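Question (not urgent): is this output format expected?
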Amino acid sequence: MQDAYNVLKTYFGYDSFRTGQESLIRAVLSGRDALGIMPTGAGKSLCYQIPALIFPGLTLVVTPLISLMEDQTGSLRGRRIPARFINSAMPRSEREEVLTLAAKGALRLLYVSPERLASPRFLSYAENADISLLVVDEAHCISHWGREFRPSYRRIGDFAARLKTRPVILALTATATREVKEDIIGNLGLRAPFCLTTGFDRPNLFFTVQHPSDKWQALLGFLHKYKGSCGIVYCMTRRTVDALAKRLACRGIACRPYHAGLPEKVRRENQEDWLAGRVLLMVATNAFGMGIDKPDVRFVIHYNLPMDMENYYQEAGRAGRDGKPSECILLTNDKDLPVCRFFLDHPGELEDGGKIRKFHFLTARGPENTFRDYRLRKLRNMQRYAAGKTCLRQAMLTSFGEAAPAFCGKCSVCLRLPDPGLSARRVQPDTENAALHRELVALRKRLSKETGTPPWKIFSDRTLHDLALVRPTTLPDLLLMENAGLLRSLRFGRYFLDEIRAFVETH
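Got this back:
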């Protein structure tokens, strides 16, 4: 592994690996097939980029996203690593130039779409190429059970079998249930693979579920709370995206829409504006976000109930990739369920990234209702999460088969409920935090009534959560806190500091 550490430091500037990276890289370098299930932001790309610089031949990366190809190759070439991509938007002459470079051994990494593997010209090159490592990114797209299933992904195993020398195969994804994991291993023909799941918990993410009768007003409240911060609002349908984007624009809130019904040029420009920070808010269907590496997303709001936990986890997980506190918010009410039921009964109507064709399941898994029953179980699991009766983090992690405590202290449910595992005579810090938080919420309510100031203009929910956790007792301490705000702290800070000091003395 010394070579891996040298590459890590020389090309990427890091001294140590993140959780799971070293063991996955070790398996790949030993010549073993591998499957890595690692959460968004865990550094999956390094798990193949480092072996690519150690293996003698080419590393071929199969990914469904043109944006990821461009981002990754641009970043690698900036580090003086020879990497290129091929996609259908390129002129034929440019595609030929890339293949010529690859044939000469001048490239270390080549990014292609799964559809490209079936191209006669590309097959002609690949069948005689020295490919050391075949990487299947977003590997959940292989599975019939996954909402983002792509038929071309199921032909990757056949492509690998046609190569003159079978390469090491590495499959990577952020989410995979047991069924999806088995599908990936079986379809790719992974041989005794090293399987790594690093855990799905993202400790820096705060999870919130609200059941507002008026989602629009709730949305405006959260957008005001995170004014000046980067975020995403996910909607179930293109129509909702367009309607919300227009209403927000009328309110003077700068945003961009994104869905598959928009012209490709418009989608690309909107995405670039958001990535560059020229606009902070993206309103989108699930067609947006896969492969986007933007670290400073402070909030992700779901305006509709997602169809399953896997997609919710992946979409919400685009918040806080820099490890800083961020919030994942689900706004849901009774109007969501009929929409979900419609898409459950009409899977071919699912929008954008969720398009499904019925024959896929008839040929793969038997009767059609088998898949419908599977999707119904997923939806019911999502409904249980949205009900907000138990710790949201526990509900999410257990759905992926991961053990989790009944009280996390970092979700909207835990903030209003005491830790059920504690006796009345025993107090731990999380329970104290929750108790202090309730007192601060009550104080904010009183101040709001007395001054006629909306609660969120006094201190946001996030700020109250941080106050209960950090417990500042002086104004300088309060001013040092992120999101407290100078004017708010000067006007209302003394009331909250008095409350915190009294609580600390009592407890």
